[in-house]
Design brief:
There is one protein chain. The protein has 3 domains: about 5-50, 2-Layer Sandwich (Uridine Diphospho-n-acetylenolpyruvylglucosamine Reductase, domain 2); about 55-170, Uridine Diphospho-n-acetylenolpyruvylglucosamine Reductase, domain 3, CATH 3.30.465.10; about 180-285, CO dehydrogenase flavoprotein, C-terminal domain (Enolase-like, domain 1, 2-Layer Sandwich), CATH 3.30.390. About 35% of the residues lie in helices and about 25% in strands. The protein has helices at about 15-25, 35-40, 75-80, 85-90, 90-95, 105-110, 110-115, 125-130, 150, 225-235, 245-250, 265-285; strands at about 5-10, 25-30, 50, 60-65, 70, 135-140, 140-145, 150-155, 155-160, 165-170, 180-185, 195-205, 210-215, 225. It starts with 6 loop residues before the first strand and ends in a 5-residue tail after the last helix.
């Protein structure tokens, strides 16, 4: 099939983009197009206007600021993956990106596009939730920041308004030497994940956990932080963690069911994968000297 007729727009600045969104009805933003174009060709969606933002250079780039790491929404996934800043300060993000699609799709796909589309199996929004990233949004009322806790509003639904666009994502790196782990199950490498898990850990000089973030994705409609399990890890020694309550928490999620797997199987995967992610986080951790 082919897309329904639409008008094509190519703004050159953020101001032009904002003006288009303010006056056009039923418009969609084109970033990398890895999800949008197939949906249009299958006529799952039929926008009257397509706004191509690939000619707005200020929406891309990676920089380190006093508050953390800022990644422009139009930054290609391959550029995020190869960034020395990301690999050294946000290694969990780089670890997850190794599982995103293939080299061809990462060369076009953008981190912002994935975080606006919000496929439940998408790795990048999940990592944003694990880091409690901030989403910098612009619209008719100016620029504002949406925390990760408010960004996810349901299946394929973000907090982004119809006249708004995502400018950047802001991450606060964890302490140097923190542990990180990532695991997912897909039928083939690069396919959509059936389920996945991510873990971040910090410990003191004695090896006692002082901070933890545990997350399952691809299981429910949005990534799910395992808050109670995180709290249970605090104070435990990294070499003798009681992982079973973490596995139980992931295995108790309200899992989705589809033509590929049952809800019970997804819950089983959630437990297996969060165990693997947590074990990897313990292995990658370097304790303070």
């Amino acid at each position: 099939m082919k897309a329904s007729p639409f008008q094509y727009h190519r703004p050159q600045t953020r101001e032009e983009l904002g003006a288009l969104l303010a006056r056009l009805d039923n418009a969609k933003i084109l970033a990398g197009g890895q999800s949008l174009m197939p949906m249009m060709n299958l006529r799952v969606i039929a926008p009257d206007h397509l706004i191509d933002i690939n000619r707005i250079p200020e929406l891309a780039g990676i920089k380190e600021t006093a508050d953390g790491i800022e990644i422009g929404a139009m930054t290609r996934q391959t550029d995020v993956l190869s960034s020395e800043i990301v690999r050294s300060r946000l290694p969990l993000l780089a670890r997850a990106l190794e599982h995103v699609g293939h080299i061809q799709t990462r060369a076009r796909g953008t981190i912002g596009g994935s975080c606006c589309h919000l496929d439940p199996s998408a790795e990048q929004p999940a990592i944003c939730a694990a880091f409690e990233a901030d989403f910098v949004v612009s619209g008719p009322d100016g620029r504002h920041v949406v925390p990760a806790s408010a960004w996810f509003e349901g299946l394929l639904q973000s907090a982004l308004g119809e006249q708004e666009f995502l400018e950047a994502l802001r991450f606060k790196p964890w302490a140097n030497g923190h542990g990180y782990g990532f695991a997912e199950y897909a039928r083939r490498h690069g396919d959509f994940a059936v389920a996945g898990g991510a873990a971040l850990l910090e410990a003191d000089r004695d090896g006692r956990i002082t901070r933890a973030a545990l997350l399952s994705f691809g299981v429910e409609a949005s990534p799910r932080r395992l808050a109670d399990a995180e709290g249970a890890l605090l104070g435990q020694h990294v070499d003798s963690l009681d992982i079973e309550p973490v596995v139980a928490a992931a295995s108790a999620l309200d899992a989705m069911e589809d033509v590929h797997v049952t809800a019970d199987y997804r819950r089983h995967l959630a437990g297996v994968l969060i165990r693997r992610a947590l074990n990897e986080a313990c292995t990658t951790m370097r304790r303070p000297s």
